[in-house]
């Protein structure tokens, strides 16, 4: 297997994006948390006792635990702890003896006396291990290209977690924040993939124009179908936390995030094929190139849209099964706010990709072919 030797420009680009990721990692725009909550600490569950408890008319279980601290200043000390098991199985957690869990321990806590509250199982170690394996595979199979492809992945995670989420919580318009993040990520991915080239600019311009059109269309769909914000998962948590400024705009922002990656992929396919066509036929006219780009996008568009819709349908298979078990008619499923929101989201994603293909072909035709005198 040939090993690709990195060029100086590749090393400089990698270091620049690595510095950008470090700056984003150090950035903290989140509201200040409660300093009285204590430090997150790993514990091992020693004993568990289930105690039935009635709260607000619903039967829940209070698990009485004995835990031993595994790290921090209280390492080796034992504490009593509790874990409340609610009827909502999607957020409840059943703890068993031997599990590794997370708790918050205040600095003045007293072993064997202070009661701790279990916040969940400890999964970070396994996650970091699998992510490290993922990074190693990138470098083994793709060498320099793998390193360049890994940087947009990390940058995307940091942009969402360090910019999009905290700025939306602070009250900034989620659509504008999503468009800005999509702009940053698209420019970064295109620069790492194609450099400062006409192909990269064609994809960037096509994606940005399609993002703006898709955002307007999403707003229109949300208004016409009266999509409710409360059907989004965990919106109730935002509502009770007094973040009422996050309304249906968050629903629109989900369209932009969900489809921007697929639009980048589609635009890259079209622009790459158009660039190869210009290299093979330097005398091709602008009209012929645009028509060829449109024909190329037709064959790719069908595949990408089907892939997106199938992946999307698989993600919401549980919702569909829930309605089927209740004997709901397909038309009633569409009338229901939850079912309607998913159908509207799927249609908006498809329209967004429909915009991305011809716009990229049009921009590519204008850029790749110089105007003949």
Explain this structure.
By secondary structure, this protein is of the alpha+beta class. It folds into 2 domains: 36-122, OB fold (Dihydrolipoamide Acetyltransferase, E2P), CATH 2.40.50; 171-368, Multidrug efflux transporter AcrB transmembrane fold, CATH 1.20.1640. The chain contains 10 helices and 5 strands; from the N terminus they run H-E-E-E-E-E-H-H-H-H-H-H-H-H-H. A 5-stranded mixed barrel has the order 1-2-3-5-4. Helix 4 runs antiparallel to helix 6 (248-280) and helix 7 packs antiparallel against helix 10 (337-368). It is globular and about 85 Å long. The chain starts with 7 loop residues before the first helix and ends in a 5-residue tail after the last helix.
Short description:
The chain is α+β, with helices and mostly antiparallel strands. The chain has helices at residues 8-26, 124-169, 174-194, 198-224, 235-240, 248-280, 286-315, 317-325, 330-335, 337-368; strands at 39-55, 58-69, 78-85, 100-105, 116-121.
Taken as a percent bin, the fraction of beta residues is 5-15%
| Outline | globular
Please report the total strand number as a whole number.
Answer: 5
Distance between the termini: 48 Å
CATH class of the largest domain: Mainly Alpha
**Strand order in the sheet with the most strands:** 1-2-3-5-4
Q: What number is the mean pLDDT?
A: 77
**Per CATH, what is the topology of the largest domain?**
Multidrug efflux transporter AcrB transmembrane fold
What is the string of SSEs from the N terminus onward? HEEEEEHHHHHHHHH
Q: Per CATH, which architecture of the largest domain? A: Up-down Bundle
**Major sheet size, sense and barrel closure:** 5 strands, mixed, barrel
């Amino acid at each position: 297997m040939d090993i690709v030797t990195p060029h100086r420009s590749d090393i400089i680009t990698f270091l620049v994006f690595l510095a950008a990721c470090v700056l984003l990692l150090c950035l903290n725009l989140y509201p200040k948390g409660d300093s009285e909550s204590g430090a997150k600490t790993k514990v091992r569950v020693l004993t568990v006792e289930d105690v039935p408890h009635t709260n607000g008319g619903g039967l829940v279980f209070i698990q009485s635990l004995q835990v031993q601290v595994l790290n921090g200043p209280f390492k080796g000390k034992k504490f009593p702890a509790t874990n409340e098991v609610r009827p909502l199985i999607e957020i409840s957690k059943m703890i068993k003896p031997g599990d590794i869990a997370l708790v918050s321990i205040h600095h003045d806590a007293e072993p064997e006396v202070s009661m701790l509250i279990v916040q969940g199982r400890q999964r970070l170690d396994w996650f970091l291990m699998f992510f490290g394996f993922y990074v190693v595979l990138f470098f083994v199979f793709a060498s320099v290209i793998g390193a360049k492809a890994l940087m947009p992945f990390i940058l995307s995670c940091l942009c969402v977690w360090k910019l999009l989420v905290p700025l939306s919580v602070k009250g900034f318009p989620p659509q504008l924040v999503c468009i800005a993040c999509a702009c940053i990520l698209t420019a970064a991915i295109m620069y790492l993939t194609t450099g400062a080239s006409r192909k990269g600019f064609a994809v960037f311009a096509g994606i940005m124009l399609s993002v703006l059109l898709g955002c307007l269309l999403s707003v229109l769909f949300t208004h016409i179908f009266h999509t409710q914000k409360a059907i989004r998962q965990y919106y109730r948590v935002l509502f009770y936390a007094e973040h009422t400024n996050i309304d249906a705009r968050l629903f629109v922002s989900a369209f932009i995030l969900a489809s921007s990656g697929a639009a980048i992929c589609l635009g890259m396919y079209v622009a790459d094929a158009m660039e190869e066509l210009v290299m093979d036929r330097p005398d091709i006219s602008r009209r012929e190139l645009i028509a060829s780009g449109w024909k190329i996008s037709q064959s790719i568009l069908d595949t990408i849209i089907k892939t997106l819709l199938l992946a999307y349908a698989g993600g919401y298979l549980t919702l569909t099964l829930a309605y089927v078990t209740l004997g709901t008619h397909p038309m009633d499923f569409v009338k229901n706010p939850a079912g309607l929101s998913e159908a509207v989201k799927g249609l908006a994603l498809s329209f967004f990709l429909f915009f991305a293909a011809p716009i990229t072909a049009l921009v590519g035709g204008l850029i790749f072919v110089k105007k003949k005198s």
